[in-house]
Design goal:
The chain is of the alpha/beta class and 1151 residues long. Among the domains are: 226 residues, no CATH class; 225 residues, Glucose Oxidase, domain 1 (3-Layer(bba) Sandwich). 38% of the residues lie in helices and 11% in strands. It is globular. 46% of the residues are buried. It comes from Strongyloides venezuelensis.
Length: 1151
């Protein structure tokens, strides 16, 4: 405990002769030295020493009123090379004290002996005994010590002038009220010899004698004492010293804080008002700028290398072996293909993992196909459909079609097994609107067999809504209007073109549930309890409770010809069959369905190409492998392209040494056709991992045409997809002749209407609904997705979809005769993957998301008012909820614009960021989509769908309608109002109101995700201000550089009205200080570099990393899927961390 002696008055000399109680220091035998020099009258504040002062040899008294920091002498430990008697002879008459009075830090003044040697080092040795010395009164002082002390603000540079005695010493004093020390002339430095100026050649040695010291009554110095010593003093009430000390500390820091605040404001005013006339300083090139420009150049080079490596012949060969046999999920044939793909990935050097699940599947009785028959009143029976398709063509085509009888069988998975008889009702496409037309016309479906055509919605929705209305069975056919549009013109279909022949039928699933029906929410592993049953699924209409089958339009026309009811008078209900379309008929037909469910094993295969710097971030490419028949188009065109993409990536990596920054993961899914089962089980098992690691999932289900792209995606990816499409040549020679040189050109030509009003740079993009494996990634865990296809113009329809005619002959002669179509789409697929995997800043666009949210809200408002939800909720209540929702979208838009503007400047290289800021930006971009996930599901009946924006519509899952969280229950409300069930309608109205809450909550979560991005933007604003530009553009408006940061501060305040303006202003101030303080920037940069170096080490801890030259194959690492192994593979080239070509220099900077 430190105490100022000047705060106390000593007792009389008699009382003071008692020993002081001082802390002991157990250190012993420590040698110290000090050097003192004289004859200098100038203080050098930048030097680490104090020159001495000489004054007349007069008595100096220190008044009680003086207050100053007393200079002290530091004693430093040094070796003693010579005996002290040789170097420092004692002044005659002086006594060298082995001990001093008490071991406190005594700031005494030393006497200089002008006859002593010029330099010496004095040893003060600790002794175990406590010696006592008497200090006599009297003597004169010859020192200008008081001159120094008159400057109350004077500070001696550390480490000079502090003498520390670390021994138990004691002594007695006589105590005059002032110091009276003769012949003390100077206060000296204690620096080592190397710091002492050469001009100071008269360094003197001092010892302490009794006459050198007298004790003052009030002396301004520092003394270390224990609280026990308080009994030797008086004049201070108990506890007052602590209070005064705390008060002094508070006042001190308050004054300092006030001064700093005034200085900051003054600096801000000066900087803000000064004219920007100075010549801008040359900007420093930071690491980010170097990396960014190198990445752009390298990305272009690698993109070109990848494009050149594609070989259409490899894809053709893959499709041939993939399509050799029927390979329905859960069969031996399909499992054999999965094993083959696993070997392919292994041979390419990927890190391979497979996941096996036990799921509920459904199969037909191939020996007893489904049939439709009619018996007249005379019991003359006719088979309207025998449940099989015809073999067409000759030669190789006929051979591929006729080598397995199972290819011909027409069936629908999970249809209820059984036989039903009834009259027929035609329900057009079987959409909700179509069934409502029948309801309004009082056409009942009870105990009827419903005839519907493919198109407009998911086949399971057609059957489900018919079953809910009491139908006995459903027949689905493919009308020539969609599947053979030129039939009436030239009567030509497959194999002359891609149009479906008259007995072709589309197979498919009727499961209204994603994943294994027996294990909702959990992966179908052995340890998981089967909570679902087939019976429960059928009761809940998640599986059909009635028989159903598909047929060709050649059989459908027979049914229409039997119908004798009222003719269809709605144009959109008429198809292209050469017959009369009628609503009903009296003829009784019989539907006989033979199928059943069984549990089977399925298998996914995952191959990971490990990234170089962020291996725990995954860019995922996927396609399913199972097919209804041979599946040369769906899915084998996509599977063959996926395999070639993996080969191209590993080949280019091996030849160039390039490795993407992030990992690229190739996924081959099983049982997609049954209901996205393989990908759903994978997402359920790896959900926690995927939420942290997956950046994007890019899906190619099939490639069924050669003219234009079909794109389903989220707004974040619009522009990245456009950029990739611009880099790939168009594969169709006829389109190239028309000037459509790239995939982008063909896309924009055939589908010009884009998703963003007023922005013609983005062609048509559809919302991600359902229909393929991308669905679970977006709707369940909030991973941005793309579903990419290529279609044929002008009809844009996949007419041979799920038919027996998908064989290798079809792909080679009708879809990709040049061998370039699959390669072109694959090149775009891989280029997009490379861009996302290798860019410093993930190429997402938040502003586009904000624009689409605003559009979606407007569309929803129109629909809800059409359903009269506003009246049901009350106009005021509805208006208030819409107001809140629109305000949230407005704030989302404001933050998105601000943040995206800054991100674009960073991405374009106009502004630099640090490594940590780069990761901050990427974290924001990665988590935007996840912000829209509602953990408990959009509403109870659809808890398996959790995305507030992109969840499939309950009655039309293919459509890509948005805001099912509100529109689904609104539709149910309208349905129950129409049938007069007010109680159930009120229940659904409450679900609608809760949907408003959930949707706004999701948007608010996204806003909060971007909040930290605004803080980043403030830092960039400082760069804007200090960039030295005479004129800048802010939101397209020219703004003088001097005022740009203030304009942007206003924009920030408008974008974030809930935040404090003072908070924003303080951010600007901090930025100003940061930008103007070079040493601070250097310190921050050093700390960031150090921390960024630790991160890769933390990531690598616990993982296996092999040495270069190892023969280890990634393909053999079967159990490391969930870890981030950095192992390298000699099959595609080792990463040389010292090689610029392999980005080793970049890795070294980051790690």
């Amino acid at each position: 405990m430190n105490s100022r002696v000047s705060e106390y008055e000593f007792l009389d000399s008699t009382s003071y002769k008692k020993d002081l109680l001082i802390e002991e220091d157990n250190n012993t035998d420590i040698n110290y030295y000090y050097d003192v020099y004289n004859n200098k009258n100038v203080i050098h504040p930048n030097d680490n020493y104090l020159n001495t002062y000489s004054t007349p040899n007069t008595l100096k008294k220190f008044p009680i009123s003086h207050s100053f920091y007393t200079p002290t002498i530091t004693l430093s430990k040094v070796p003693i090379h010579k005996s002290e008697s040789e170097r420092c002879p004692m002044k005659e008459g002086y006594q060298q004290l082995s001990t001093l009075p008490t071991p406190y830090n005594y700031h005494g003044i030393l006497n200089q002996d002008k006859t002593s040697p010029s330099t010496c080092r004095t040893t003060i040795s600790s002794q175990s005994s406590s010696l006592r010395s008497s200090l006599n009164d009297g003597g004169n002082v010859n020192s200008d010590y008081s001159n120094v002390t008159r400057n109350k603000n004077y500070k001696i540079p550390s480490p000079v002038n502090e003498m520390k005695f670390n021994n138990t010493l004691s002594g007695k004093f006589n105590s005059p009220n002032y110091i009276d020390s003769n012949n003390l002339e100077s206060v000296g430095s204690t620096n080592d010899d190397k710091n002492t100026p050469k001009s100071n050649s008269h360094l003197k040695y001092y010892t302490f004698s009794n006459e050198d010291f007298t004790f003052p009554k009030k002396f301004n110095t520092m003394v270390k004492v224990k609280p026990e010593n308080d009994k030797y003093f008086y004049g201070d009430p108990k506890g007052e010293r602590k209070k005064r000390r705390l008060m002094f500390t508070g006042i001190f820091f308050g004054i300092i804080s006030t001064i700093l605040a005034i200085c900051l404001m003054a600096a801000l005013i000066i900087v803000a008002t000064q004219k920007n006339t100075s010549t801008p300083e040359k900007k420093n090139i930071d690491i980010f700028s170097v990396l960014l420009h190198e990445d752009i150049k390298r990305g272009n080079d690698i993109g070109g290398d990848l494009l050149k490596e594609w070989d259409g012949e490899n894809i053709k060969n893959s499709i041939r072996w993939l399509s050799e046999k029927i390979h329905v999920a859960g069969t031996d044939n399909n499992m054999a293909i999965m094993n083959h793909i696993e070997k392919e990935f292994t041979n390419l050097g990927l890190e391979v993992t497979s996941t096996v699940y036990d799921v509920l599947l459904d199969y037909p009785n191939y020996n007893k196909p489904n049939t439709i028959s009619y018996c007249d009143k005379k019991n003359n029976c006719e088979v309207l459909s025998n449940g099989v398709s015809d073999v067409l063509g000759s030669g190789e085509l006929a051979s591929q079609l006729d080598d397995d009888y199972r290819s011909k069988v027409q069936w629908l998975a999970y249809a209820k097994n059984g036989t039903v008889t009834g009259s027929v009702v035609y329900a057009n496409y079987g959409k909700l609107d179509d069934y409502e037309v029948l309801d309004r016309r009082n056409i009942s479906l009870k105990d009827k067999i419903v005839l519907v055509r493919y198109g407009g919605n998911f086949r399971a929705d057609k059957v489900n809504m018919a079953g809910v209305r009491g139908a006995k069975g459903v027949i689905i056919y493919s009308d020539p209007h969609e599947y053979a549009p030129l039939l009436k013109k030239d009567n030509e279909t497959f194999p002359h073109n891609i149009y479906l022949p008259n007995h072709g039928a589309q197979r498919g699933t009727l499961l209204k549930f994603d994943g294994d029906p027996l294990t909702p929410y959990f992966p179908s592993k052995d340890y998981v309890m089967r909570t679902g049953t087939e019976e429960e699924m059928r009761k809940q209409n998640l599986m059909p409770s009635i028989p159903a089958t598909p047929i060709g339009y050649g059989d459908a026309i027979k049914i229409f010809n039997l119908m004798d009811g009222p003719e269809v008078d709605i144009d959109t209900w008429n198809g292209s069959l050469d017959t009369v379309y009628r609503f009903t008929g009296s003829a009784q037909i019989t539907l006989d369905v033979h199928s059943g469910t069984v549990r089977r094993q399925i298998k996914n295969v995952i191959g990971r190409f490990v990234g170089s710097e962020e291996p725990d971030k995954w860019v995922m490419l996927g396609n399913h492998v199972d097919a209804w028949v041979k599946g040369s188009i769906d899915p084998n065109s996509g599977t063959g392209t996926l395999l070639e993409a993996a080969r191209v990536l590993t080949k280019v990596s091996k030849s160039t040494g390039w490795v993407p920054r992030r990992s690229i993961v190739f996924c081959a899914w099983d049982a997609e056709e049954y209901g996205l089962i393989g990908s759903t089980e994978f997402v359920e098992e790896y959900m926690k991992l995927l939420q942290n690691k997956a950046l994007v999932y890019l899906n190619v289900d099939n490639i069924n045409g050669n003219n234009t792209l079909l794109v389903k995606t989220v707004p974040l990816l619009y522009r990245s997809i456009v950029d990739a499409a611009k880099k790939v040549p168009h594969p169709n020679p006829d389109d190239v002749k028309q000037g459509l040189l790239t995939l982008y050109d063909g896309w924009r030509y055939y589908n010009p209407k884009g998703p963003l009003s007023g922005d013609i740079s983005i062609p048509e993009v559809r919302n991600p609904g359902s229909g393929s494996d991308f669905q679970r990634f977006i709707s369940y865990i909030g991973i941005p997705v793309l579903d990419l296809k290529m279609q044929g113009a002008p009809f844009m329809n996949y007419m041979l979809y799920h038919s027996m005619y998908e064989v290798p002959w079809t792909t080679e002669n009708l879809i990709d005769p040049t061998g370039k179509v699959f390669s072109s789409l694959g090149s775009m697929w891989l280029e997009l993957s490379r861009n996302i995997a290798d860019s410093l800043i993930i190429p997402y666009n938040i502003e586009d998301y904000a624009i689409k949210l605003d559009d979606f809200i407007g569309q929803m408002d129109v629909i809800l008012k059409t359903y009269e939800i506003n009246k049901a909720m009350g106009d005021d209540n509805y208006s208030e909820k819409m107001k809140y929702l629109k305000d949230a979208v407005r704030r989302f838009n404001g933050k998105a614009i601000l943040l995206q503007t800054q991100i674009e400047e960073v991405r374009n290289g106009n502004r630099g960021v640090t490594i940590i800021q780069q990761r901050l930006i990427n974290n924001i971009l990665q988590n935007i989509e996840k912000s829209f996930i509602i953990e408990q599901g959009i509403y109870p009946e659809r808890a398996l769908y959790r995305h507030a924006v992109f969840a499939p519509n309950q009655h039309d899952s293919y459509s890509g309608k948005v805001f099912s969280i509100i529109l689904d229950p609104a539709t149910e409300y309208r349905n129950y109002i129409n049938i007069g069930d007010k109680k159930e309608a009120e229940r659904w109205l409450k679900v609608v109101e809760l949907g408003f809450t959930k949707l706004q909550y999701a948007i608010e979560s996204a806003i909060l995700t971007m909040d930290i991005g605004v803080l980043f933007a403030l830092k960039v604003l400082m760069n804007n201000y200090f960039g030295g530009e005479e004129r800048q553009f802010f939101m397209g408006i020219p703004v003088p550089g001097k005022y740009s940061c203030w304009a942007e501060l206003i924009a920030i305040q408008m974008a974030t009205p809930n935040a404090s303006f003072v908070g924003h202003l303080s951010g600007i101030i901090v930025g100003l200080i940061y930008m103007e303080t070079g040493i601070l920037r250097k310190i921050v940069s050093t700390i960031e570099m150090f921390l960024s170096g630790l991160l890769p080490r933390f990531e690598e801890s616990g993982t296996y990393r092999e040495d270069a030259g190892s023969n280890f194959s990634r393909g053999n690492n079967r159990n490391n899927f969930s870890s981030d192994s950095h192992s390298t593979n000699n099959t595609y080239g080792f990463r040389d961390y010292g090689s610029e070509r392999s980005y080793g220099w970049r890795h070294d900077i980051y790690s």
